[in-house]
Design goal:
Radius of gyration: 22 Å
Number of helices: 14
Helix content: 25-40%
Distance between the termini: 57 Å
Strand content: 15-25%
Largest sheet: 7 strands, mixed
Mean pLDDT: 93
Low-confidence stretches: none
Length: 454
């Protein structure tokens, strides 16, 4: 029996890995200096919650099969140091996923935006048709109880390929370590300025990923994305390069229909050009996995979208409320434009929380210029305490409005004032879009949504 210890087990993906390993039959232990919900409850229910928070080198013993270290740990972590001293096998998350899938066909979906949705689409189609597969995805998906699934029998694994660092002691991007057979690049838009200080360095990570495509491998890429075109240039005669664009479609009465080659219309439950591109990418990947077009369309018609990606909160007769994980400039532009195009006769109020390191960095803020032009009313919010926590300089609301190149941008730094502004809006024939990777500091979204739709 494998005996595996996870350092920083409380992380979103790490606690899912712990649960997956235990389900696979391994004896799992873990540690962390802080564990929040839902990880705490889920680990406790499985009997995997550490007896106490904090690090303890004594937990790392010579009989361990492997130690997996998460990004939350620091390079000088005492448990990591003990594992190194004992000469144990130490893996980052992506290294272990590769180790567990060496004998499988590996499909890796990379890109600055869309990778979670593309991954979710592929998983949905495969499950719809009863295919056997493993997976590792960076978000909790509807219908899947874990974000990681590992078995001995599945012939293929679908992996969301994050470009962020692998571990505190391995500064390679995660998606470089999976060694894909089928790779997807959904688009490239500079992000993670704290790790990749220039756009060129960031793009280089995708160039490396593209070059890693092996003989007889496939690289699927957004043919309309300028940055992706630079890295997906066919360089190997032994690799198949497949470009895609938005799926052909029509929009009627707020509903999107895919157009097939047989002139059939397939109603879908998601919308927006970015989702139409995601569908094309997923279709190409599924084609490589021997899913026929007609079977793909049967499945995609029942796809409701990935959680927090243009997720419907509430719908009324003349208003809808959506929330979205969007925070990077490209995601912001695509999401706001999608909702405006889907409901062109309605006013759009869109509210963005600046929450990530990049979005709060004065050097990165100019990347947001004209990304928030689509909404009729544009609102930005940030908490000055988050700036202090991330050791970033103070940020003036006027500087945010200037960076967005939108003088009428309303910028709030107090969640109560933000809530008052939103409650004061006239919501008849008006939609609300809330975009954040945070919580707007506890804003009651459900109550707000109920008020909007009446």
């Amino acid at each position: 029996m494998e005996k595996i210890h996870l350092i920083a087990v409380g992380g979103s993906i790490m606690h899912n890995l712990a649960l997956a390993l235990a389900r696979r039959g391994a004896r799992v232990t873990g540690s962390d200096d802080e564990i929040f919900e839902p990880a705490r409850a889920r680990l406790a229910a499985a009997g995997l919650l550490p007896p106490a928070e904090g690090w303890d080198a004594a937990r790392v013993t010579p009989d361990l099969t492997a130690v997996i270290v998460g990004m939350h740990a620091r390079p000088d972590n005492p448990e990591l140091a003990r594992a190194q001293e004992l000469g144990l096998k130490i893996y980052s998350f992506p290294e272990y996923i590769y180790e567990a899938s060496k004998d499988k066909q590996r499909v890796v979906i990379g890109g600055s935006h869309g990778k979670t949705s593309i991954t979710a689409l592929i998983l949905h189609v495969l499950r719809f048709h009863g295919r056997q597969f493993d997976y590792a995805v960076g978000a909790q998906l509807a219908g899947f109880d874990l974000m990681v699934h590992l078995t001995d029998d599945a012939p293929v694994i679908i992996i969301e390929g994050d470009e962020y660092l692998s571990s505190p002691v391995d500064r390679r991007p995660k998606f470089h370590l999976y060694q894909h057979h089928i790779g997807v690049i959904s688009g490239i838009s500079w992000d993670h300025i704290n790790v990749f200080p220039t756009e060129e360095i960031y793009r280089e990570q995708f160039e490396i990923f593209a070059r890693q495509t092996p003989k007889a491998g496939v690289l699927i890429y957004d043919r309309d994305d300028e940055q992706t075109q630079l890295v997906a240039v066919p360089t190997s005669p032994d690799v198949s390069y497949v470009g895609y664009g938005p799926h052909e479609h029509v929009i009627r009465d707020g509903r999107t229909y895919l157009l097939t080659k047989k002139d059939e219309e397939v109603p879908i439950q998601v919308f927006g050009e970015h989702n139409l591109r995601n569908i094309s990418a997923a279709k190409e990947a599924c084609k490589q996995l021997s899913i026929k077009g007609k079977d793909f369309y049967k499945a995609v018609a029942t796809f409701k979208g990935a959680a927090r990606r243009l997720e419907l909160v509430r719908e009324g007769a003349t208003s809808v409320v959506y929330k979205d994980f969007a925070h990077a400039p490209s995601k912001l532009r695509a999401t706001a434009a999608a909702l405006k195009k889907q409901f062109p006769q309605r006013r759009l109020v869109a509210c963005l929380e600046l929450h990530t390191f990049s979005s709060l960095n004065p050097d990165f803020l100019p990347q947001y210029a004209h990304c928030f032009d689509a909404p009729d009313v544009a609102v930005a919010y940030f908490n000055p305490h988050v700036l202090a926590h991330k050791r970033l300089p103070p940020l003036a609301p006027a500087a945010v409005a200037a960076a967005f190149a939108r003088p009428d941008l309303r910028v709030f730094t107090d969640s109560a004032e933000l809530a008052a502004f939103l409650h004061a809006q006239a919501w008849d024939n008006t939609n609300l879009l809330l975009m954040t990777s945070g919580t707007f500091d506890g804003l009651d979204l459900e109550a707000l949504a109920a008020e909007v739709v009446g």
